[in-house]
Write a structure and sequence with these properties.
By secondary structure, the protein is α/β, with parallel strands linked by helices. It has twelve helices and nine strands. Strands 1, 2, 3, 4, 5, 6, 7, 8 and 9 form a nine-stranded mixed beta sheet that branches. Helix 3 runs parallel beside helix 4, helix 3 crosses helix 11 and helix 5 runs parallel beside helix 7.
């Protein structure tokens, strides 16, 4: 399959960059003067992004529904980094107009009148109990399930993405995303970073709505990244494992007791690689706890003792690495079979389908 895919490099056509180089650490100075909008930026990953990028000299607009926490965070980081270009904007991501106001304010605050990177980070875990254990459905007016998780994690992300795909291509001085660009010659960017989760890559018992929302973000990423050659926006994605943030509640922490959780700084490091390097297009990584690993002769990664000097420690792993190659081969095979079936049916089959389509349309008009 790999050889067949190599004949038809669809990754090149859609401007996907080469596999993510885990060992390459871009210079944080590449973030300097970039205008970055972060939703859900008052705590967790968002706060980590702000601190790292503010220290590198970026213009960061933090958006959150928590005014007190968000405003205080920005004031503290502005003081610590002596970076005056840090701003807080109140935003309820579930409200369309609130997000519209956020983007308009971000452009107003931007020194060059545009946005380089949008990080769709806002998310909640929510309460899952009611959905899996329905109650009161025998009442005359049964209560609807609480879908606030989808409102924030899916609808909110879609609002952010929709606005980003309008504003990013209109970023003054920017060019369409290309893995062949030179970072030193690309001061302006068009970058959308989606935040999913390991819950978007595998089932998470007890969290159906959260997992549903994060699977949806993965689907959004996989679709949008294949269209960079059309809209010129580079779309990347982070899928953190269980990370020590306020999103991980007590119950989850008890389940994970004795295991391992990831660290916010590793998620921030992965996000910085995406934000800093404009050559990274259409890539996704999962971030978890740091593990001491070694790659065997078959290319498989094996866990080794921490004392092993020949191993490497890593917390970042690329996901959907061969997505385009595999799907391209699959689609070409299926389309080839469909074309062959069409040839077998011939003109008679084509005529039957055309007549059936016309009849269907007429019947729809008569109803």
């Amino acid at each position: 399959m790999a050889q067949e895919a190599a004949k038809h490099p669809i990754g090149d056509l859609v401007r996907q960059s080469p596999p993510f180089d885990i060992n390459h650490v871009p210079d944080d100075s590449w973030v300097k003067d970039k205008v970055i909008v972060v939703t859900g930026g008052a705590s967790g990953f968002g706060a980590g992004f702000l601190k790292r990028w503010a220290a590198a000299g970026a213009v960061v607009i933090v958006a959150d529904i928590n005014v007190k926490q968000g405003d205080q965070l920005v004031r503290e980081v502005r003081k610590d980094t002596r970076n005056p270009n840090l701003h807080f904007v109140h935003c309820d991501v579930t409200k369309w107009q609130s997000q519209v106001n956020l983007f308009r304010e971000a452009v107003r605050l931007s020194p060059h009148g545009g946005i380089d990177t949008v990080v769709a980070n806002a998310g909640i875990a929510g309460s899952q109990q009611q959905f899996e254990q329905p109650i009161g459905l025998d009442l005359a007016e049964p209560p609807a399930p609480d879908l606030s998780v989808l409102d924030v994690n899916l609808t909110g992300v879609l609002y952010t993405t929709h606005l980003a795909l309008w504003y990013l291509p209109r970023n003054p001085g920017s060019s369409p995303a290309s893995p062949k660009c030179m970072p030193s010659d690309t001061p302006r960017d068009r970058h959308l970073l989606l935040i999913s989760s390991v819950a978007g890559l595998m089932p998470v018992p007890g969290a159906p709505l959260y997992a549903t929302s994060k699977h949806a973000v993965v689907g959004l990423y996989r679709t949008l990244r294949s269209m960079a050659f059309i809209h010129g926006v580079r779309v990347n994605m982070l899928c953190p494992y269980f990370i020590d943030t306020p999103l991980v509640r007590v119950g989850v922490r008890l389940v994970l007791a004795g295991g391992m959780t990831g660290k916010v700084e590793d998620v921030v490091d992965a996000a910085t690689r995406f934000a800093a390097d404009p050559r990274v297009v259409g890539r996704a990584v999962s971030v978890g706890p740091k593990l001491k690993v070694r790659q065997d002769s078959d290319g498989e990664w094996c866990l080794v003792e921490r004392e092993n000097q020949d191993a490497e420690e890593r917390a970042i792993w690329e996901v959907y690495l061969h997505d385009f190659e595999d799907s391209d081969v699959f689609q070409r095979r299926v389309v080839a079979m469909i074309n062959r079936a069409t040839e077998i049916r011939g003109w008679i089959g084509w005529t039957r389908d055309v007549v059936a389509a016309i009849v269907y349309g007429l019947r729809s008009l008569w109803r």
